[in-house]
Amino acid sequence: MPKMKTNRAAAKRFKKTANGGLKSANAYTSHRFHGKTKKQRRQLRGLSMMDKTNVKRYKKMLNL
């Protein structure tokens, strides 16, 4: 059997945490900030933990 290939698009977008979770960038951060409050803009900075309903699927893509 050949080795499983990592999905490179997913590998560039998601980071594994020490406890086995996944972090990813937030959605809604590319444009149209004038419609968002300062609090929304501030909280969209940085990374956030991926929802547990998606973790299994993305771990398979990343061969974790």
TrEMBL record:
<dbReference type="InterPro" id="IPR001706">
    <property type="entry name" value="Ribosomal_bL35"/>
</dbReference>
<dbReference type="InterPro" id="IPR021137">
    <property type="entry name" value="Ribosomal_bL35-like"/>
</dbReference>
<dbReference type="GO" id="GO:0003735">
    <property type="term" value="F:structural constituent of ribosome"/>
</dbReference>
<protein>
    <recommendedName>
        <fullName>Large ribosomal subunit protein bL35</fullName>
    </recommendedName>
</protein>
<keyword id="KW-0687">Ribonucleoprotein</keyword>
<dbReference type="Pfam" id="PF01632">
    <property type="entry name" value="Ribosomal_L35p"/>
</dbReference>
<keyword id="KW-0689">Ribosomal protein</keyword>
<dbReference type="InterPro" id="IPR037229">
    <property type="entry name" value="Ribosomal_bL35_sf"/>
</dbReference>
<dbReference type="GO" id="GO:0022625">
    <property type="term" value="C:cytosolic large ribosomal subunit"/>
</dbReference>
<dbReference type="GO" id="GO:0006412">
    <property type="term" value="P:translation"/>
</dbReference>
<feature type="region of interest" description="Disordered">
    <location>
        <begin position="1"/>
        <end position="43"/>
    </location>
</feature>
<feature type="compositionally biased region" description="Basic residues">
    <location>
        <begin position="31"/>
        <end position="43"/>
    </location>
</feature>
<comment type="similarity">
    <text>Belongs to the bacterial ribosomal protein bL35 family.</text>
</comment>
<dbReference type="InterPro" id="IPR018265">
    <property type="entry name" value="Ribosomal_bL35_CS"/>
</dbReference>
